[in-house]
Amino acid sequence: MLTRADERQDGEAKLMEEQQLNLELNAIAECYVKLVLAIGLHDPFYVDAFYGPEIWRLECKKLTLPELHKMAKVQLKCLNKLNLSNIDAKLISRHSFLNKQVSSVVYYLSHLQGDRGSFDVESEGLYDTQSQKFGLCSFESIQDDIDKLLPGEGELAERFEQFRAEFIVPQSKIPAVFEAAVDKARALTGAHIELPHDENFSIEFVTDKIWTAYNWYQGNYKSLIQLNQDQPLYIERCLELASHEGYPGHHVFNLLQERDLVRTEQWIEYAVYPLYSPISFLSEGSANYGLSLIMSKQEVIDFERDTLMPLAGIEGDIEKYHKVLACYKKLAYLDNLVCEQLTDGHILEEDAQDLLIKYGLYTRSRAKQRVKFYLSNRAYVINYNHGEESVARWVEKDGETRKQEHWKRFEALLKRPLTASQFKV
What we know:
two-stranded antiparallel sheet
């Protein structure tokens, strides 16, 4: 039978073990951050954000890829050797995150040296998951549903584009419309998540990009949101992008980690964001899910009709428009199918464009832009649709229907990110 003295000694021993483990994790975390920064000297798109000690960036040397690969493998070995028995769940979670992130670094360094796996191998190696599969026949019935909503002569893609054209925000109106969407998303998010009083972002309009919008998190609770002007901006995209890039999407995702993990816990590994890594699965998935959390479908329609459309000078049947869009969103997994076929060498670029036009109702210019995204980012596309569905299942699991409970689970997920393999419910 344990005495109180024995229990106290056991408690002190456990505390010492955890303190030692935390020190070892701190050392590995520092090496991981510096590794990611060094890889960024070989691939300028790899480091999406960094707000750790600036001296680390300044001192970063361009080591060879084999040298970096060897260093990453050493760190992974160190992680795997750590004793995790009888350790606090919080530290186990930290170890798990670092293990997945460092493993993806090892994979990406192999990739940069020419050892390129298939779409599925890359998905697993970089994002800790594989997306479900759909054949082209899966999308034909969806097209039939859209066709019934848009009867008329000519090809469906042409009718679809003609109908959508009514809801394009004029370029001169975009700043005001987007700002109104952001203000709404921020207010609704702030009612459920306590945000730093000095958090903010700036907006920049750019061209000649392979994406529609991008959030560049800059640390100190600040972001730069860039909107690409190459393609038309449809009215529904204003709220989608405001929530995805801003609230409760990428901006909130990053600032919560900076506040709660980097500043409070001193977990420096969260101060760097390697784009091609497991954290992107949660980052993109939660950002895509964000709009459905802050507003119901009807609330979105009402806000667009009553606020955004008047600001944009747009008139049209917004109810019917969203019925069409609800069908169109079911084509999301076409992205993965076409990208996989292109990545694995089964089709050429022009074939990929044609598939997007035929089955995804893309215009030729949008299809070209999307194929450029595939070529640059490859398996990254799974993080949007597969990530969104995984976040939705996690937040809404157990049949919980109360919105407040959804917000609690969502905030907890952003503050302590899970990798894809931990999402299984």
